[in-house]
Amino acid sequence: MRAKFGPQSNSHEEGYDKVTWTTDVETHPPWLRFHLGISRWELYNRKDPNLAQLTHYLATQHILGSVQKKGGTQLKLLISFPNYGQALLKPMKQTRHAETDVNLFYFSDFERHNAEIAAFHLDRLLGFNRIPPVVGRLINVTTEIKEITTDRRLSKTFFTSPAGNVCFYGQCEYYCSVEHPVCGQPHMLEVSLATMLPDLTIAPRRSWRSPWRRSYSRTKLAQWEKDPAYCDTVKQTPPYNQGTRLVDLIDMAVLDFLMSNMDRHHYETFEQFGNNTFLLHLDNGRAFGRHSQDEPSILAPLQQCCRIRRSTFLRLRLLSLPDFRLSDIMRESLTQDPLSRVAPLLSEPHLSALDRRLAKVLQVVQTCQEKHDDVIYNDIEGHDQGPRSAVTA
Amino acid sequence: MRAKFGPQSNSHEEGYDKVTWTTDVETHPPWLRFHLGISRWELYNRKDPNLAQLTHYLATQHILGSVQKKGGTQLKLLISFPNYGQALLKPMKQTRHAETDVNLFYFSDFERHNAEIAAFHLDRLLGFNRIPPVVGRLINVTTEIKEITTDRRLSKTFFTSPAGNVCFYGQCEYYCSVEHPVCGQPHMLEVSLATMLPDLTIAPRRSWRSPWRRSYSRTKLAQWEKDPAYCDTVKQTPPYNQGTRLVDLIDMAVLDFLMSNMDRHHYETFEQFGNNTFLLHLDNGRAFGRHSQDEPSILAPLQQCCRIRRSTFLRLRLLSLPDFRLSDIMRESLTQDPLSRVAPLLSEPHLSALDRRLAKVLQVVQTCQEKHDDVIYNDIEGHDQGPRSAVTA
C-alpha cells in the first residue's frame, strides 16, 4: 500500500524534502503520479512537472463515464477518464459576475465551478499545496454526460429547455430541481474538474469537525461567536494542544477569509499520517461568492488565538508588496486554466478583494503582535521536531 | 343573496347597462360596493368612481391581519382590513428588471407582484374589466405581517438575513424555502394587493379547464400544439359552440399574448350567471417575465379559430395608433399606482414589447381575414341576443 501511496519515510524526522520521489515513473498516468507524490506535509510539490501534465490530462482526455457523486448537498458528478483517471465535476450554475444574494445564508449559497478552480490556484500561491489540482473545461453535456451515463437517476433529469438548451438537474438535497437546471448553450457547459484523491480503501482519511464551525442555523450562534476566550479551550484540547494542528487551522482560516468561504465545517487528514500532517482544503465551491464585502468572522481562529506560521506570515507579507501583489499573481496564474479563454475565472472586483483582505489579515497579525509576543510560530527551521516555542519574526 | 351580489336582471335581455347600479350606497365600504357592482358582463364599470376609492382603501388602510392563503403553488397572503375588507398579497420576489431565466419553463417561473398590478391595468385598458382591482403597496413585513399574524406556519419561517433584512418564506409547494426568501429592506417590502372576489359561499364560481391549456410537462405536447385543426373540435364542443365563450377565450389569449403569460391553465366564471357571462382573468403573476421575446403559441386560439370580437379588434386597432399607443397609455395608467413612486412598474423594454406584440396580434387577424370571411364577431350591437353570424368589420 505504501508504494501506491506516495513517499513516506519511516521516521518523519527525515523531512519531506529528503524523500526519494517516485513520481518520475514515466509510464504511470498523471493521476497516479499525483497520488504517489502525496507526502505527509503537502499534496504535491509545486515544482513537480506532473502538476501541469495532470491538469492537461483532465482538461483534454476523452471522457469515458459520468455519474452522480453521492455525498454533500449539491449536484456533482464523478467523471472517468482512460487509464482509470477520475475527477469530481462541478457545473457552472450562475454567471461568473453574479454575487451571492445578500439575504442568502452561507449554507444556502450555490457552489461555483470557478471558485473550485480559483481556490486551487490561491492555495498553491499561498504555498499550502493542500487542495487537489482543479482545472476548468468546456464539456458537451449531451455527448459527454447524457449519452454515456449509466446513472439512471441522473439521465432521467435531462430535458431540453424552452430556449433549446440541453439541461439536467440530477438528484440531491439542494437545488436539484427543474427550477434550478444546469444547462449547456445549447450543449456546451463550463465545469470544474478536481483530481480525485486516492481511494479511501487505499488511503483512508479522517474527518475533523472544525472547532470554528458555524452553527448552520438561521438563529443560533456557535460557541466561538459568543466566547472571546474560546481559543484558550481549543489550545488545551488534543490534537490542537501540540504540533502544528492549530497553526494549520489558522492557515485554513486565512485561505478561507481571502476567498470568503464560510462553509468550512469539517476538514480532513490522511489517517496513516496520524496527527502530524497537513490538513486537506477540500470543497471550496462556496468561496468567491461576494467581492463587495468581507466576512471578518472567518478570521476568528487567527484573531482569537493570535498565532500564525512564520512561513505563512512571510508569504502573506511578500504577496502584499507591489511587485508580488496577490491579485496580480492570481490573475496571471488563472490565465493558465483553459476556461480563462472563455472569460476570466475571477472578475477584477474579486481580484481586488483579495488584496483588500490580505491587508486585513496582516492588520490582525499586527494587532496581535502589539498584545502578545508568541504570535509567530516558527515552522521554518526543522518544522518536524515536535512542539517548540514560538518566535516573534 | 342577489342583493349582496351586484345588479342582476331577471332576464339578461335587458342588458347590463340598464341595470340600476347599487354601488352608490355611500355607507358601504369600497370592497362591498365593488362586489355589488359585479355584473354578468364585467367585474366593474371602468367609469365607476368606486374603483379609485377601492384601490386607495387597499393602498392605505391599516392592516389588521396577515395569514397564508392556501391553494396555488407559490406563497401568497390573505390580508384583512377594517370593515371586513380583504386582499390577496403577492410579494416582490425579484428585481423589477430581471428577465425570467431562458431555461425555466413557464410552470417554474416566479410570480411577480408587478405583473399582477400591470395585468389589471392592461385588462382595463383593453376594455375587458375582467381582473379584480390590484394595487401596489410598500408594507412593513415586521409590523404588518410578522407581529400581527396568527398563522404559526407562516410566523415560524421569519428570520433575519445575513444582510440584516427581515425575511420569511412561508410554506407552499414551490420556492417556499430559506433558499428563496422574501425580504424587506430591512423591513419594507413591495407587494401587490388584489381585491378579493365575493366569498365562494355567496358567489360560487366554476373553474373551466382551458382548451388551449399547456401540457405542464417538460416533454409532452398538448393536443392543440399537434393539431392545426384543433379549433374545429372546440367550436363544436359546449360551451364553445354557442354565445361568446369562444371569443371570450380569444380575448383572454390576446391579453395573455400581450403580457406573455403562458400560465392560463384554467379560467373561472360566476356560477349564477351560467354560461352566458364573462371570463375572470385571475392569477397573472407569471406575466411580464420576458420582454425580449414573444411567445406566439399563446395566440394559438386566435390563430387556429380565426375569430375575434369586433369590440376587441377595434380597441386593438385604436391602441396601435400613434396617439393612443398602448405603451404610452399603459405607462400613464401605471403612474396612478402608489408603487410607481418607488420605480416604474413596467420597465421601458416591457412597455415596448406591448406595442410589438399588439402589431403581431393585428397581423394574425389580417392573415385570418385574407383566408376567411367570418373573422370579426360582431358583439357590438345587442351582444346578448344569443348566437349570431359573425360580420367582417
User: Which bin fits the share of residues in helices of chain A?
Assistant: 25-40%
Query: What does the average pLDDT of chain A come to?
Result: 91
Which parts of chain A are unreliable, with pLDDT below 50 for 5 consecutive residues or more?
1-21, 383-393
Largest interface: A-B, 21 and 21 residues
The helix/strand series of chain A, from N terminus to C terminus, equals HHEEEHEHHEEEEEHHHEHEHHHE
* Structural class computed from helices and strand pairing of chain A: alpha+beta
Largest sheet of chain A: 5 strands, antiparallel
Number of discrete helical segments of chain A: 12
Alpha-carbon Rg of chain A, integer: 21 Å
* Distance N to C terminus of chain A: 41 Å
User: What topology, given as strand order, has the largest sheet of chain A?
Assistant: 1-2-3-8-4
